[in-house]
Amino acid sequence: MSVNKIRNFAIIAHIDHGKSTLADRLIEFCGGLSSREMKQQVLDSMEIERERGITIKAQSVRLEYKNHKGENFILNLIDTPGHVDFSYEVSRSMAACEGALLLVDATQGVEAQTLANSWLAIESDLEIIPVLNKIDLPSAEPERIKDQIKDIIGIDVEDTLSVSAKTGLGIAAVIDKLISKLPPPLGKDAHPLRVLLVDSWYDTYLGVMVLVRVVDGTLKKGDKIKLLLSDTEYQIEKVGVFRPKPEEVSELKAGEVGFITANIKEISQAWVGDTIVNSKNLHNVKPLPGFKPSMPVVFCGLYPIDASDYDHLKDSLNKLKLNDSSFTFENESSVALGLGYRCGFLGLLHLEIIQERLKREFSLDLVVTPPSVVYKVKKTDEKLISIHNPADWPEKTKIIAISEPWINATIFSPDKYLGGILKLCIEKRGIQKEINFTGNRVMISFNLPLNEVIFDFHDRIKSISQGYASFDYEIIDYKVGDLEKVSILVNGENVESLAFISHKEKAVLRGRAICNKLKDSIPKQLFKIAIQAAIGSKVIARETIGSLRKDVIAKCYGGDVTRKRKLLEKQKAGKKRMKQVGNVNIPQEAFLAAIKLDS
User: Fold this and answer.
1) d(Cα 62, Cα 75) in Å, to the nearest integer?
2) Rounded Cα gap, residues 140 and 468, in angstroms
């Protein structure tokens, strides 16, 4: 088919604005699946996606449409996630498209992720078509929402379409607008082969499957290809498209989106954003710009509750890694929890999804330590090191400066909750950038340290605004901060697993809270136990667990008081000796109580 008859587009929106439902209606309208085969959220293949109503993994589908003039068109749709943690998936989808449907809920209006995804699309120079969804609801306010889109995002709203993804109202108009407004791909079949590697995942039977967008040239079964970034060569075994079921085709031409398999054994060999070229024609082929690889920003420890599950956890993490290249893990051990893994995630929802998948798909019960971020420490020998585990923290005397990641947070909320949100942001060491009012909604922009956001910020924003506020962020830079490592000591012994990094202002508060938790959870011994939080050698918080007391004077039924006193003095001296040599075993329950403080 001629490249002029191809349209590649993505659907971008805030979480829960109806992207997957609109994709269902488009597939149904173009006859991709029969009504018997249709189910809700066709492109959401994971059980957890369907259950929560969210998209985690970008999926593509090829739709074939014949318009009223009898012309055939190919529409390549790439569904995208709506949550901030998966914005790297959105950027990958946009690199393979010429246009995007900007879907906005006609009852809720522009939300934080709507704005973030719109900016991604504008930066990628895509043609944007605004679409108002849920137009059939009585609470829909199309005119007000159009004004919001115009004021906040700054795009033309004259051609805005109104649809109901649930009932199918307005779907034909969406497809006609896609064909008339979106530009066709610019590639040529006769040019040397250049293919963008959009995504890769592991299939049990076929090995690594690679989602590709052919920019120039033609890709056929049997071709020998080279992946430029990983510098590896393969022979193509299968070429196909998703309709939405995978179907084999003879070739993929310029402008088309599909998949290939080439006996690639490991997903690490198929780098997302790589350029694929023909092995026989490597000269004068410029690599495609690609896009930034995803970087984990939140780290935490995963430990099996039962130590015998360690090998099972290792196998499970390796299997998850095959289908999620953004997830990282490395070995870690803890005195209290035994052997486990230090894992890196794109955000808190990503952490929650991985934890849920380990529990459901692999039947693992895990202990999850409090999340932390990556700090950059400049040492006295001028070395700059990245640290995400307090156990690796250098001595205070060897540190010149500590930098922490900062984010630019965008919060949308009804204006009546503005006071509470501003108070929370300032409490979290935030720096206000701007406040914009549109009607009865307000957009607040704040710079915040990421380590203040990863614990409870999202929950508290929802609580303050009764669930109406939406929150989105992007990492902007590292800034030098007054940060300290706080160690927890039990009976003078440093418990490394409970150490944490905190800003100096909040160290005492968090230290005291952990000491209190441990005091309530550690069982009493025959001697007093001191629980301390310390920065270096300076103790900033302390709690004491009283000793169990054996009644040594029970046998004295009278007689001189000096006899009782002598027995008590002897007991006191014994307890003093015992304290010097006594070890305290912290039970796992106490450890869990302490780390749950931040969850």
Assistant:
1) 6
2) 16
Is 499 in a helix, a strand, or coil?
coil
Q: For residues 5 and 71, is the Cβ–Cβ distance under 8 A?
A: yes
User: Is the model more confident about 278 or about 559?
Assistant: 278
Instruction: Please say whether the beta carbons of 121 and 160 come within 8 A.
Output: no
Cβ-based neighbour number of residue 560 at 10 Å: 9
Do 11 and 80 form a contact (C-beta atoms < 8 A)? yes
**CA–CA dist 446, 422 (Å, integer):** 9
d(C-alpha 80, C-alpha 61), whole Å: 12
CA atoms of 546 and 525, how far apart (whole Å): 8
Residue ranges of domains in the chain, CATH in brackets: 3-181 (3.40.50.300), 194-278 (2.40.30.10), 298-371 (3.30.70.870), 376-481 (3.30.70.240), 484-598 (3.30.70.2570)
Q: What are phi and psi of 195, to 5 degrees?
A: -130, 135
Closest alpha carbon to 298 in 337, 332, 336, 329: 329
Measure Cα distances from 310 to 300, 351, 596 in Å.
16, 19, 22
Q: Are 6 and 186 in contact (CB under 8 A)?
A: no
Q: How far apart are the first and last CA of the chain?
A: 54
72 token code pair: 């055939």
Q: What average pLDDT does the segment 139-151 reach? A: 89
Q: How far apart are CA 12 and CA 349, in angstroms?
A: 19
Residue 485's identity, in one-letter code, is K
pLDDT at 32 over 80: no
* Confidence (pLDDT) at 599: 44
pLDDT, average across residues 59-70 = 81
Q: What is the pLDDT of residue 365?
A: 84
Contact 124, 96 (CB under 8 A): no
- DSSP label at 164? B
pLDDT tens, residue by residue, 404-431: 999 898 888 888 899 999 999 999 999 9
Mean pLDDT of 535-559: 81
- Whether the CB-CB separation of 343 and 354 falls below 8 Å is answered with yes
Look-up: residue for tokens 């301390």?
Answer: 532
Beta strands in 383-469 (DSSP E): 384-387, 399-414, 431-438, 441-449
**36 contacts: CB under 8 Å, gap ≥ 6:** none
Q: Burial of 576 by CB count in 10 Å (0-12 exposed, 13-18 middle, 19+ buried)?
A: exposed
From residue 33, alpha-carbon distances to 26, 245, 293 in Å are 10, 9, 34
DSSP category for residue 546: P
Nearest CA to 135 among 158, 114, 105, 110? Answer: 105
Lowest mean pLDDT among 94-103, 153-162, 247-256, 340-349: 340-349
What pLDDT is attached to residue 204? 76
Give dist(CA 105, CA 166) in Å, integer.
12
Closest residue by Cα to residue 80 from 135, 7, 17, 6:
17
Read off the tokens for 35: 């009504």
Query: Which alpha helices (H) appear in 149-213, and where do they start and end?
Result: 171-181
Q: Is the peptide bond before 296 cis (omega within 30 degrees of 0)?
A: no
Residue 468 near residue 109, CB atoms below 8 Å: no
Name 561's Cβ contacts closer than 8 Å, sequence gap at least 6: none
